Each structure stands twice: as C-alpha cells, then as structure tokens.
C-alpha cells in the first residue's frame, strides 16, 4: 500500500513552499510527492474561471520540474507528475520518472496517453471523468493501474459509495473528500494506492487547499496504512 501526496498546484507558484511540501510529505510517510505539469493558458479556460491567474502562476517551468525532481531524490521520496501535453511527457521522460499519472480530465486524450505509454513506463489512471461502463482501453508496456475517483471538489462522503467499488479491479482511490476517513475506508477495503491533495495550511489561497490533507493528517493516514498491513 502506498500514499501519494498530491501537491499539485498547492505550492502556489512558490518553489520554497514546493520544496517544503516535498520534505513534509516524506517526513509524514508518503511514498510519492506528486505535481502537475501543464501549459496553463492551453489547459485552463480563461472565461468564467476565477482561478485563471492562479493557474498561470502555478505553471511549472522545465527547470522547476527538474529542481523538484532533484529535491525528491535528495530527501528520498518518489517524484511523480501528471503531464497534460506531449511536450511535458518528454520533460518527465528525460528525468527518468518511474511512473506517469493520467488525470481524470485527460482520460480521453489519446495522444497524451499514447505518449506516456510509449515511454515504456507504468501508468496510473484516474477515472473520475470516465463515463464508460467498462475500463478504458488503455495499455502500456509497464502496465496500467486504475484509480476510483469522484470528480467533485470537494466530494461529499455520501457520494463516495465505496461499498460498490471492487478493489481487485481498481488499484486504488483518488480522494477528493474533506478529511482522511474515506481514504482509510478505501485502504481497509483493499485499495493499494491512495492519492490525496496535500497542503501545509487548508486556509491558504487556492482551489485545492481546503480539501487537502495536512502533514498531521498525512502522518495519521500513513500510520493507519502501516497498522492495517500488520493486521491483514
């Protein structure tokens, strides 16, 4: 079982904060520190998007991606990122990342998925925006793991419906609820991967902070994971 601390945009464009989030994720016991790598003006709509300026501010340059990967290597935690275009898949490929994350919004982007698969590495795919009755036809030489996900921010606990989720088919759960109870329940039901947003302060400015876990919550989730592994 592993916990992915999804830093995403929660660095707020501040690389000192990004490095601290990496260190705090590692110290709390996460297996992975994860970011998002995108061209903000191409990915995010400007009209009707109250967070557009924030989205642009949190766009990572190639040099920043390289710096963050080096920081992860220095402290001993896996660097992972969701890439949102083929060019940035190449950035990650040249860094030698062991896995690629396909975000829910990219699950139908065939060019992006094929570029990730062509690297030969493993793919982790969130299915929050997949509307098919069966899993999407995605394959990769390194294998594919699918995450159960509800694309509501935040997700109400009543919408999670984990009793209906078969964790022999889904590798894990990408959790957008407030708190860590849903993630704990998913682990207890057999999830091997938990991905959840991570912040130092839920009151920070930004769309994802309020629904993120703090270092204290991450540490609690990691302790639960380790004790559950002993019990099982």
What does this structure look like?
- By secondary structure, this protein is an alpha/beta fold.
- The protein has a single domain, classed as Alpha-Beta Barrel (TIM Barrel), CATH 3.20.20.
- It has 9 helices and 8 strands.
- The protein has helices spanning 15-28, 40-43, 52-57, 62-75, 86-95, 110-118, 157-160, 181-188, 215-231; strands at 2-8, 32-37, 78-83, 99-102, 122-126, 144-149, 172-175, 193-197.
- The termini are close together.
Features:
alpha/beta, 9 helices, 8-stranded parallel beta sheet, 232 residues, TIM Barrel
Task: Describe the protein's topology.
Layout: E1 2-8, H1 15-28, E2 32-37, H2 40-43, H3 52-57, H4 62-75, E3 78-83, H5 86-95, E4 99-102, H6 110-118, E5 122-126, E6 144-149, H7 157-160, E7 172-175, H8 181-188, E8 193-197, H9 215-231
Parallel strand pairs: 1-2, 1-8, 2-3, 4-5, 5-6, 6-7, 7-8
Helix pairs in contact: 1-4, 1-9, 4-5, 5-6, 8-9
